[in-house]
Amino acid sequence: MTHDELREIAEKERDEQSRVPRKLNVCVAAGCLSLRSDQVLDALQTGLRERGLEGGCRARGVGCMGLCAAGPLVRSEPQHTYYRELSPGAPEVLSAILDNLDGRPVPEFALSPDLPFFAAQQKIVLENCGEIDPERIEDYIAADGYEALLSCIAGRSPDDVVQEIIRSGLRGRGGGGYPTGLKWSMVAKAPGDRKYVICNADEGDPGAFMDRSVLESDPHRVLEGMIIAAYAVGATKGYIYCRAEYPLAVKRLKVAIRQAEKLGLLGKRIGDSQFGFEIEIRLGAGAFVCGEETALIASVEGRRGEPRQRPPFPAYSGLHHAATLLNNVETFANVPPILRKGGSWFSSIGTEKSKGTKVFALVGDVMNTGLIEVPMGITLRDLVYKLGGGIAAGRQFKAVQTGGPSGGCIPAQFLDMNVDYESLMTVGSIMGSGGLIVMDDSKCMVDVAKFFMDFTRDESCGKCIPCRVGTTQLHRLLERISEGNGKLEDLDTLDRLGTMVRRTALCGLGQTAPNPVRSTLKYFREEYVQHIAGKTCAQGRCPCAAKPAACTEKQGEPTDAGAKSIPG
Amino acid sequence: MQAYPVSVPLPSDDKRWKLVAATMRRHNYNATALIEVLHTVQESFGYLDDVALRFVASSLRLPMSTVFGVATFYHFFSLKPPGEHTCVVCMGTGCYVKGAARLMQTIEEIAGVKAGQTTADGKVSVVAARCIGACSLSPAVVFDGEVIPRVQPATIRDQFRRWMSHDA
User: Fold this and answer.
1) Domain carrying residue B26
2) Can you give the pLDDT at residue A329?
3) Contact A245 B147 (CB under 8 A)
4) B4 shares contact with chain A (CB less than 8 Å)
5) Which terminus of chain A has a smaller tally of CB atoms within 10 A, N or C?
């Protein structure tokens, strides 16, 4: 396919779309789909047919619109009105919507696009999510898709592409924040004629679903980012390492790969040039440690996902000992817009050291849970109160957890902090892949620390002793404290042991595993002391608070302050 | 690596072995396809048994220890046959803060099984998932492949009663 042919497809598709003035975009990403949005789509299509409106309005499936808490979501175009919580079991609501396509929105179910949740976002990665049908390549092409790829191949040298990424200041979105351009130039300069590009879509961080949504809503964007990367570094083969737990994402990726191959955007002689690149999907099999790059590479090679000592870094010796570029889904998704609009455009967004936007999965005890994309440097307060709509059920904000099992809990005193890589690090957390779990005052921080420690203990691959034994011991100490059998010295032991694990573990999993304990110990020490000295959990979440017989009813409610309960 | 003719006979005339063999053929019997092949086995048979592991090992010319090592390393693979129904409880952070532990407790009370176990009558397998990515619908469970949002203990009780009653 040549550049002109691509433009032809884009124009034809735009022309066709403009002929249908009204649209009903129905979210068919996994969240809304589990609430039966496919049946809502069917019902709307049938309704349009019955009313003879097919020529004037099209109902179609699109990707995630973000406000998953109010799903199934439908957006009516051109007014941009959102409709929330539509159910296939309430046909009268769907009829009302179809009867008012031009008139006023149906008030009970309408959401204005001016709500802060929608209006305060800035979309780069998610620009097509909720706008295009993820299973049609023409939709993506009409939204300037593959434009960046073909103009790179036609008119820019690989080194020029790398320089553009360096200029943009893009940093790895998987959590580490390593400068992407630098990584690309390392792989490009590495010796050897066989190189690989791998996309890390093994979103193992519990409580996060950014990558899943991008893959389900706009898979071609990730493919285009990967193909551009391959062109820039000189790779001929790519893998997408995707979680087996995301069957819909895998299915849509497969469809996208087939479509791109058919149009000559993937495979041999891309864009009628000498450059060829193919992509295969590899399924993960449920191992958190496979987010670590050397472990992921081992898994792609069909082995146990155990990390190895670095250097050599995968940029020099990765998959099958060849130079390998490994980036996360969101990083690749940022690439096409950067090349389309220029690196300096991208670097004008965000803060001095953290450029661009970040996608977050806002979950936990906020009103508006869902997926958001905001410029770097936004305050936590804006995230929780403006976009998130505040804490649910009249409770108080207690902490926000970022970075998953590798991150920390940030207390209320830092709500006005800017969210970027460095600031989060200074308060003992990390950016991570973008999970933001908001917790209200009914949550016990000892319990949260224990939850994460249980996770890393279980997910430790067992290769190095500090991580294998250290996480087990840390978890055992926390268990003892939560049962009301802790001693005050245990707090020092937690601190010492945590420092040791952080300094000596082989890979990132172990090095960051103590973070949830360290941060809660730092900001919520009094809760630990209360569990040890008072043998009670004020939030009623730990075993030490359980009274015989009435333990389950008491959950979530504060127990009597002075009540001593039976340990264990 | 080069492809070579493989003469390992299928373990039985069960048609599902042909799917497994097809996956191996597609990857030229390359050892790097081990995880892909195990996925096919689990998808076809529901779990990985000794016969399957031995068949895969000899077909890919890998030591049994390597195959067993990989099969046990990853959470997704199961070495035990699943029950008639599966109940996956998401234990991701989003679901955990919304009370997933209580759902697990409810299951233990009514069915007497913990995560990773199957009820004695073989009706229901209970699995704890790391995160199914349905965080904004937390707490979420998956009943036989269908994601159920915002689950209450009562939802679990009803479903288990239906599954475990004899006429189900």
Assistant:
1) 16-73
2) 97
3) no
4) no
5) C
Residue A545: its chain B contacts at CB < 8 A? none
Q: Where are the beta strands (DSSP E) in A149-288?
A: 196-201, 237-242, 278-283
CATH 1.20.1440.230 fits A445-545, yes or no: yes
Could B133 and A30 be called an inter-chain contact, meaning their C-beta atoms sit closer than 8 Å?
Answer: yes
Using an 8 Å CB-CB cutoff, list chain A residues near B98: 364-365
Report whether pLDDT(A63) > 70.
yes
Architecture of domain A20-113: 3-Layer(aba) Sandwich (3.40)
Does any domain span residue B93? yes
**B84 close to B138: Cβ distance less than 8 angstroms:** no
Spatial neighbors of A295 by CB under 8 A, at least 6 apart, are A287, A289, A305, A306, A307, A461, A507
If asked whether residues B128 and B69 sit together in one domain, one would say: no
Q: Nearest by CB to B130, which of A288, A361, A556?
A: A288
**Are A206 and B93 an interchain contact pair (Cβ–Cβ within 8 Å)?**
yes
Q: Within an 8 Å CB–CB cutoff, is residue B135 touching chain A?
A: yes
Residue of B33, B69, B130 with shortest CB distance to A286: B130
Whether the Cβ atoms of residue A302 and residue B34 lie closer than 8 Å to each other: yes
Extents of the domains making up chain A: 20-113, 145-347, 357-440, 445-545
The region that residue B149 occupies, defined by phi over 0 for left and psi between -120 and 50 for alpha, beta otherwise, is beta
Nearest to B26 by CA among B48, B6, B46: B6
ipTM of the shown complex: 0.92
Number of domains in chain B: 2
CB A456, CB A407: distance < 8 Å: no
Kindly report the CATH number that applies to the domain delimited by A145-347. Answer: 3.40.50.11540
- Do residue A364 and residue B97 have CB atoms under 8 angstroms apart? yes
A102 pLDDT higher than 90: no
pLDDT at res. B167: 53
- How far away is chain B from the Cα of A443, in angstroms, using its nearest Cα? 7
- Quote the pTM value: 0.94
**B137: in domain:** yes
Residues 203-222 of A with CB under 8 A from B: 203-209, 212
Candidates A34, A282, A300; nearest CB to B149: A34
Burial (Cβ within 10 Å: 0-12, 13-18, ≥19) of residue A500: middle
Judged by CB atoms within 8 Å, which residues 507-536 of A form the interface with B? none
| A357-440 CATH, one of 3.40.50.11480, 1.10.3720.10, 3.10.20.600, 3.40.630.30 | 3.10.20.600
pLDDT value of position A219: 98
**How high is the pLDDT of residue A558?**
41
Mutate to test the interface with B, among A39, A67, A117, A209 (most CBs of B within 10 A): A209
Scanning the structure block, which residue is given the tokens 């209200």? A440
Look at residues A443, A452, A331 and name the one whose alpha carbon lies nearest to residue A393.
A443
Express each pLDDT in A41-58 by its tens digit. 999 999 999 999 988 999
Q: How many CB atoms lie within 10 A of CB A139?
A: 20
Q: Is the same domain home to B23 and B57?
A: yes
Amino acid at A560: D
With an 8 Å Cβ cutoff, are B137 and A69 in contact? yes
CB contact under 8 A, A207 and B93: yes
- Specify whether the CB–CB gap between A206 and B91 falls below 8 A: yes
Q: What is the H or E stretch that residue A559 is in? A: none
pLDDT of residue A7: 96
Euclidean distance between CA atoms A477 and A485, whole angstroms: 9
Query: Within 10 Å of residue A318's Cβ, how many Cβ atoms?
Result: 25
Check whether B7 has a pLDDT greater than 90.
no
